[in-house]
Amino acid sequence: MPSLARKLLICAAVDGLVIQPLATKGQRTPAPVKIKYGDATVSSLPRDQSPDTSKPNSSFEAFGVVGLFTVSRLSYLITITGRQQVAQVRGFPVYVVTDVALTPCTGRSEAEVAVANTAEKLRSVSAEKIVDDSDSESEIDTPLASRGDGADDPGALSDRDNSGDGDATKRGHDRRSSIAEDVIKRRGSYGRFAQRWFSSKGWVQDQKRNPGLSTIESDQESDSAGNAKKGDTDKELSDTVKQENVGPPPAPSAGETLMPKLLRFAHIWLGTSRSFYFSYDLDITRSVAAQSASVATATSPLHQTADPTFFWNQNVLKPFHGAGDSSLLLPLIQGFVGQRTFVVDRHPPQADSQEDSMEMNDMSPTVESEVQFPPPERASVDLRASEKKFVITIMSRRSTRRAGLRYLRRGIDENGFTANYVETEQLLSSPTWDSASKIFSFVQVRGSIPLFFTQSPYSLKPTPVLQHSPDANFRAFKKHFELMGKAYGSIQLVNLVEKHGVEAIVGNEYEKAAKKLSEQKTEGTPPIAFEWFDFHSACRGMKFENVSLLLDTLGQEIEKMSSTVERNGQIDRKQNGVLRTNCMDCLDRTNVCQSSFGKFMLDLQLKEEGFDMTAQVDQENSWFNTLWADNGDAISKQYASTAAMKGDYTRTRKRDYRGMVNDLGLSLTRFYNGMVNDYFSQAAIDFFLGNVSSLVFDEFEATMMSKDPGVSMTKMREQAIETSQKIAIEDDKEDFIGGWTLLSPHTSDTVKTLPFEEAVLLLTDTALYLCRFDWKLDKVSSFERVDLAHIVNIKVGTYITSTISPAEADESKNVGIVVTYEPGKFDIKRTNTRSLSSTTGQSDQESDENGVVKGPAVAPAAVSGILNQGILNAITGKPQAQPPRKIALKALQSKTAVTDAKDVKRMTENEYINVIATEIERLVFRNQPLAESSESRQSIIEKGDIISLAEAKKKTGILEQWGHSIKKLVWA
After folding, report:
1. For helices 233-244 and 108-135, what crossing angle results, to 10°?
2. Nearest CA among 711, 682, 310, 307 for reference residue 476
3. C-alpha span between 545 and 650 (Å, rounded)
4. Backbone angles phi, psi at 965, to 5 degrees
């Protein structure tokens, strides 16, 4: 696969923003590219047509394009301005993104200011680093050391320093430099653009030309802003927002008012969180086994071969598709990439000898040594003949399907995708990755329990709540394992949740579903084995070493599963199954067990190479434990906004009170983030992934919540209408006309009683039914039946229930219908708690825990079914004439963030309400005989405000306004 352009020149031109790839030597000059995206013009021009960049701060250089996004009228280009090499795979570097620039594209003036600010920022930070480097030449950050410190928390939007990482003290401070250092400090020895960027062999060849230069110095020529000192992080982020959110158009929409927060989130999430990784030459979205199965050719662009499941910026790169310059399309994965080297001895010395024991080398560079990937060949000369050096690489890929944050993305969606699904590949190879040597690949996966369930973020240990019917759960469960079977083959399930307590609620259902799926043995479903290991019970008293009991049970299965082996570019052996491990969050317990499985497989692989790990003198394996602990911290920060719990055991294989205290602090941080920060972060993640449109920010501003786009509300509503029809319409003689879902006040016979809940309206040829639906359990909780002959009025008009957000105060979108009727003997209300019971349609009455209406006169009749209005009147002595009652209904928003993202064409709110009102009126006239004296009927549809905007403003209390303002201040 040809190398992509290593650098891009970003500058503002007359017609918009210009992206100019700096072509490699001998590479064809990219064709002109112009991209129209809303009001923004993004173009890529040949070098001979480049705009004038001679002016100070007229341009800056980036390492790649992340993508382009638009909110309302504002478009922003995301480019990589900081990176750090963290691994070398097959001779090619793999980088972590350490900083990004967000450049407005809507207008030339805004783009020029943003470009200038970014260029000045990069140059100033680079100048500071030149001074720092001259004062502390010995403090060099290792590009291979997996990092546990300095990662920003995308949920909390703040830095977190993991001072407990033992390797952190070795690293010193981060090294940064830029193109300015390349020109000034090195006196132009390589010209403005270092020659190694243009080498097809990457930076290894450059190291041979220029021995003694630090890799970090030469490899991070624009890696500046992302690695700034932690004390300046908040100031830099604030400056970024001020610099890049320049001159918004007048009268911004609701979504635009959140743009500063969105920019700040994007800067932290995509840049300084160190969560995203890329390679110019390798498809890191696929494992070794998956790459061999891919039909794409070796010359295909990376964005065409990348697995969309792990391709995180696929949506924001869409504006560049078909633009004629594939070098711009750089796939990113989210997760973790870390690498270490170690040495093993085929004939280790005796236990009493301290010479030549097992050596650990984390590839940390020193001042005297060259820093290069792979390490110098001379390093192997010093080894004993019986010793051999290996490289272990951990590469975790988080799935883009059902992606998000802890309590807001749980369980499964209807397409079979689960939350926090991560594929972790453990690679074992020689340091040089020569084709004659074996490359071992062992893949594990983790993912949320594949059932519909939720947990409230307002508790330190919330009780799981199962959702939807057993059939719906099993359908999604089956889809999930069909997808896994196609990808991995047989599956060994490892369930780590508690067998007793709140976690057992979903654990038991998980076991039942797995057993049912195994018994069915349908075509396309892989063999599934289920192992339930109660981690908390087995490891009670901080005895985490008891995880070995699980290995005793699964050891033979793991050995039988084996691992993928590649040699000479061919697959000699393929892993024939996969371990799928889960706890509730799939973080802490899961990482401890996965690291144990990985160590078990590593021992098997080294044994195959002739090395017995049990005979090595050094049994601490700190290089392995640290690597897996860093992997656990990275995934935990991306899902729960904190480092992983139990990380002290993963690193040291020891557990004490200090680890417990640290875990308590992490629990409280997760608790706060789950209540406050995660809602906006989840909305932003869904937006960048293309699951929702920018309308999600309007919706967030109104409710301070985010919806789950993984569950199709269209299908759910269709199923709710079908279920309600079966339950409510008992008379086979009634012809079903239609069904709709609308919002209705919580209390019957009122126009405004908060909260409003989504209900189902059914219409037959003789009656109208309002069904209260339990959307979590897919059941009808109650329904009212109104005889059409009793309807006397239908009012259609503006229906505003709140004015605290612009979307809720929009008169064109907030419309509704109020049906007024005079109760008669065939009007009923039935409530379903544990069983269906009946009451009259006159008023809401209390019922006991069995759902039977309270009261001596009503209870006997309730058992028998429909309660006749006339009988009740005779018993109670009430007159038959009753005051009119109302059924108030409000239209759902026709255009939502989810429907807009899927380009679903729907009727407007007014059209929707008018269709319902007209259909009801038509059938009412059919059921009401025309008076003999009347030649024509007068319409019963009345046009007028149900609740006008002015009236809603008067009824919106000061406390309600203050409450929303305070919540918005905290949440947004």
Report:
1. 160
2. 711
3. 10
4. -65, -40
Tell me the HSE value of 257 on the side-chain side, using a 13 A CA sphere: 15
Of residues 439 and 956, which shows the higher confidence score? 439
Query: CA-CA distance, 954 to 635, in Å (whole number)?
Result: 48
Burial class (CB in 10 A: 0-12, 13-18, 19+), 10: buried
Mean pLDDT, the chain, as a whole number?
75
Residues 417 and 541 in one domain: yes
Q: CA torsion angle for 221, 225, 226, 232 (degrees, to 10)? A: 140
- 766, part of any domain: yes
Q: What is the pLDDT of residues 144-166, one digit of tens each?
A: 333 333 333 333 333 333 333 43
- The count of structural domains within the chain is 3
**Residue at a domain's end among 282, 307, 328:** 328
User: Looking at the domain assignment, is residue 618 inside a domain?
Assistant: yes
Tens-digit pLDDT profile for residues 189-239 = 323 333 333 333 333 333 333 322 233 333 433 343 334 333 444 444 444
Provide the residue range defining the domain that includes 33. 8-129+224-328
- Evaluate the omega torsion of the peptide bond into residue 348 and state whether it is cis, within 30 degrees of 0: no
Q: Are 9 and 61 in contact (CB under 8 A)?
A: yes
> Do 295 and 349 belong to one domain?
no
Q: For residue 431, give the 3-state DSSP assignment.
A: coil
- How many of the other CB atoms lie within 10 Å of CB of 355? 7
Strand partners, 564: 441
- Nearest-angstrom CA–CA distance, 204 and 372: 6
- Mind listing the pLDDT tens digit for each residue in 434-468? 988 999 999 999 999 999 999 887 777 889 999 99
**276/86 Cα distance (integer angstroms):** 11
Distance, CA of 273 to CA of 97 (rounded, Å): 8
For residue 658 the two structure tokens come to 């200090």
Q: How buried is 88 (Cβ within 10 angstroms: 0-12 exposed, 13-18 middle, 19+ buried)?
A: buried
- Mean pLDDT within 634-654: 70
Share of the chain above pLDDT 70, in %: 66
**Contact in structure between 104 and 110 (CB atoms under 8 Å):** yes
Q: What whole-number distance in Å separates Cα of residue 73 and Cα of residue 694?
A: 11
First to last CA, the chain: 44
- For the record, the structure tokens of 516 come out as 């049912």
pLDDT band at 380 (very low <50, low <70, confident <90, very high): very low
> Please, are residues 683 and 696 in contact by the beta-carbon 8 Å criterion?
yes
Q: From residue 412, how far is each of 466, 510, 776, 783 by CA, in Å?
A: 11, 12, 14, 30
The answer to whether 804 and 959 have CB atoms below 8 angstroms apart is: no
> Is residue 438 located within the same domain as residue 472?
yes
- H helices within 609-733, ranges in order? 622-640, 647-652, 657-675, 678-689, 695-703, 713-728
- Residue 831 located in a structural domain: yes
Residue with tokens 């009236």: 951
- Model pTM? 0.76
Average pLDDT, stretch 589-599?
A: 94
Domain check: are 555 and 665 in the same one?
A: yes
257 and 278 co-located in one domain: yes
- Same domain, yes or no, for 520 and 668? yes
For residue 159, tell me if it sits in a domain.
Answer: no
Residues 661 and 642 in one domain: yes
3-state secondary structure 921-936: HHHHHHHCCCCCCCCC
Residue 601 above 90 pLDDT?
Answer: yes
Q: What single letter denotes the amino acid at residue 367?
A: V
Domain end among 278, 300, 328: 328
The answer to whether residues 592 and 551 belong to one domain is: yes
DSSP code per residue over 149-201: SSEEETTTTEEE--TT-TTHHHH-SPP-B-HHHHHHTTTTTT-SS-GGGG-TT
Beta bridge partners of 885: 821
389 in helix, strand or coil? strand
Half-sphere exposure of residue 692, counting CA atoms within 13 Å on the CB side? 28
- 708: Cα within 13 Å, side-chain hemisphere: 24
